[in-house]
Amino acid sequence: MLKQGHFLSLSDFSRSDLTLLLDTADAMKRDPKAYARTLEGKILLMIFELPFLRTRVSFESGMQRLGGTTQVLSAEDIRLDYDEPIMDTAAVFSRYVDALMVRTSDHEIVQDLAKHGSVPVINGLTDREYPCQALADLQTIREKFGRLEGLKLTYIGDGNNMAHALLFGTARMGMDCTLIMPKNAKYQCLPEIVEQAEREHADQGTRLEITSDIQAAQQSDIVYTDTWVSVGRESDRVQRIEAFRGYSVNEKVMELAGPQALFMHCLPAYRGYEVMPEVIDGPRSIVYDQAGNRMWSQMAVLYQLLGAQAHCIG
User: Fold this and answer.
1) pLDDT given at position 313
2) 135 touches 21 (CB < 8 A)
3) For the chain, what is the mean pLDDT?
4) C-alpha gyration radius of the chain
5) Farthest-apart Cα atoms in the chain, separation
6) Cα-based distances in Å from 145 to 72, 139, 209
């Protein structure tokens, strides 16, 4: 069982907790029938202030595979912390459903829902962190390499929620992490996130490097990137594309990383911008495996938060 009652940030979990989630996801993937009724009668409410189809489909499919059901609220139905005080929303929804999955901009919203409610809250994405994707990424990397400890992940691009989650995930699992991004503070990770990640990497004895030099991608096991223009940042699209123009993941970058390096992207991807077609559509790309593992890793989170006490991993 997890010590944490919510899934808000990878930094909340120890290596043993994350390993438990990864082991659970792998077990479900190997034998989904063994878990087919473990969340029977449970209801997951999904709140989308930001629309993302993969998150909805992966959570709905996962909950149904576990025997549970889902409900969906969109931005047309509710605006969190606007329609009514968040403490009222949390208290009321806790009486209707067994868990909340929230995809919103403001990270404080998921924190407040967890604070004032009495059911597990899952961070589907906030501007601060994208833990569901990072957990699926760890599962995928472990599948491909047979381990996580000692590997080097290099992230190239915007210092966004994906970069934040990878900073924490690599530290927790004993991986070295290199971030390559423009020097402009506008495109860097949040200073408080970097400070926390530096402490955690130091505690784990792993290396964290943040640079603008693309040469730092040398000897990487994973080369990772994300869109340059995330949802909510479309207003400066032209400026962003110009700022990141020298940070595309192309064949030269993959050659620099080494023959063992695999390419990852959390999708949606824009070919010709953050990644070239020959990379994302090439033999070293594992982006669809990542996307597929979103369902299994999220099922593991749901199971460990809601049903593990009544069922043992086979």
Assistant:
1) 42
2) yes
3) 95
4) 19
5) 55
6) 36, 10, 22
Residue 158 backbone phi and psi in degrees, to 5: -75, 140
> What's the confidence (pLDDT) of residue 216?
98
Can you say whether residue 150 is alpha, beta or left, with left for phi > 0 and alpha for psi between -120 and 50 degrees? Answer: left
- Give CA–CA dist 264/266, Å, rounded: 7
**Tokens 């189809």, residue located:** 53
Q: What is the rounded CA–CA span in Å between residue 297 and residue 294?
A: 5
Q: Tell me the CATH number for domain 131-291.
A: 3.40.50.1370
How many CB atoms within 10 Å of residue 184?
A: 11
Interatomic CA distance for residues 139 and 168, integer angstroms:
15
Q: State the average pLDDT over residues 51-59.
A: 92
Q: Can you read off the two tokens belonging to residue 153?
A: 């992940």
Q: Which residues contact 1 (CB under 8 A, 6 or more apart)?
A: 304, 308, 309
Measured between alpha carbons, how far is 3 from 305 in angstroms, rounded to an integer?
A: 9
pLDDT tens-digit profile of 9-19? 999 999 999 99
- The pLDDT score that the predictor gives to residue 154 is 99
Q: Where in the chain is the domain with CATH 3.40.50.1370?
A: 10-129+293-310, 131-291
| Residue that is written with structure tokens 């459903």 in the block | 97
Fold of 10-129+293-310: Rossmann fold (3.40.50)
